[in-house]
């Protein structure tokens, strides 16, 4: 049977409720009391205080479907079948309650019995030394030993500095040869899209001191995560996360606005998928109260919107379209996230404003950048001067990352130090201007009211560079 995305979300939560879990609402994308993270990037992240014992969980078994943003995956978006900057992570959690045995058994039961995946296409992996997990898969679930993969730290050990950590076990689904890279040795764990990683069961059983010493925890925990969109890919048997029911509807809207057809050219398809993803991220971020700015989370949002706007241009869309597209995001996801519906007008307004701001300068900026690249080509230069990148930023609203990306597509790079220096210079000038005004006895706020960005902008960028880790 073909289950829809909204149905699968419900099925997961109900399954774990039937196993004694408390189903909790998704937490905001904005971390609460956690400076280590710019945006929530896993189901576990907002539950950290329960894992560390800082707070008492409402129940020792919890299940969620958590909205996540991973800007670290931004380069993959549109290019792989399985990565979005936005996705939903389904998870079941045990705080010192059940451990490996139940976690693995339920993972298997859900995948093979509840949603009915073919067991012969599923492959588990375990951490190198984790014989305990290996044996559960082999002896209790009945997977032949040669179908269970043992991987090293990079893939199968979950650790984040000091604190609770442990090995994990993942489940991959073989989508068939036609999705493979065709390279010799392509098998489970290959980075291509044939063996798609769907679920990660983390067994937090150690406390790490961050220096390589691990102590066995008295209360062991379970933290699992499965991408809802990826689950839908394998259940619905479609090509990519952009082909599952809800995302396909959105993708079709993108094609409609651009008057292009999907699957006619790879280059066009990348832009279509990228816009489909970025508008989802932007809609959800704004619904959680994030506004486009030049620092931190706001910068991530601005970068996503402007990147989508540029790809809209590549597809030939001239006027604002993101504010219209968000309707389709709301339509597809309001089932699980009623806040989207509640904030509809606000989301539209913010997107329209941001689009409007950028659309006034984007064409000019792109044209100027094009000229800069021509000149670099003529002079046999590889690196764009920092002051030029700064001009694009300051006058045309190009986030540095966007400039960098366009340059890289043509084999160029940018002098980032020079960019920062130009930024600093501007800042000093703004400061001086304020001092002079002050000295003359005038109200400095008058100056700010002319261009409020002048004073806030540069401070913001510094914050981004020094404090914020973009994940
Ligand atoms: P991959 O190796 O495919 O990048 P991952 O190992 O980084 O995935 P985890 O950190 O283990 O992913 O996250 C748990 C689950 O969340 C994954 O098994 C996958 O189903 C889902 N997931 C992770 N990143 C993304 C993404 N960018 N888009 C959609 N789903 C994702
Ligand atoms: Mg990843
Ligand atoms: Mg992985
Ligand atoms: Mg993983």
TrEMBL record:
Catalytic activity of the protein: tRNA(Ala) + L-alanine + ATP = L-alanyl-tRNA(Ala) + AMP + diphosphate
Location of the Alanyl-transfer RNA synthetases family profile domain: 3-471
Keywords carried by this UniProt record: Aminoacyl-tRNA synthetase, ATP-binding, Cytoplasm, Ligase, Metal-binding, Nucleotide-binding, Protein biosynthesis, RNA-binding, tRNA-binding, Zinc
Cofactor(s) needed: Zn(2+)
GO MF term (any one): alanine-tRNA ligase activity
Free-text comment on the cofactor: Binds 1 zinc ion per subunit.
EC number: 6.1.1.7
Subcellular compartments: Cytoplasm
Task of the protein: Catalyzes the attachment of alanine to tRNA(Ala) in a two-step reaction: alanine is first activated by ATP to form Ala-AMP and then transferred to the acceptor end of tRNA(Ala). Also edits incorrectly charged Ser-tRNA(Ala) and Gly-tRNA(Ala) via its editing domain.
Written domain comment of the UniProt record: Consists of three domains; the N-terminal catalytic domain, the editing domain and the C-terminal C-Ala domain. The editing domain removes incorrectly charged amino acids, while the C-Ala domain, along with tRNA(Ala), serves as a bridge to cooperatively bring together the editing and aminoacylation centers thus stimulating deacylation of misacylated tRNAs.
Family named by the database record: Belongs to the class-II aminoacyl-tRNA synthetase family.
Name used for this protein in its record: Alanine--tRNA ligase
Organism of provenance: Diplocloster modestus
Whole-protein coverage range: 2 to 472 of 879
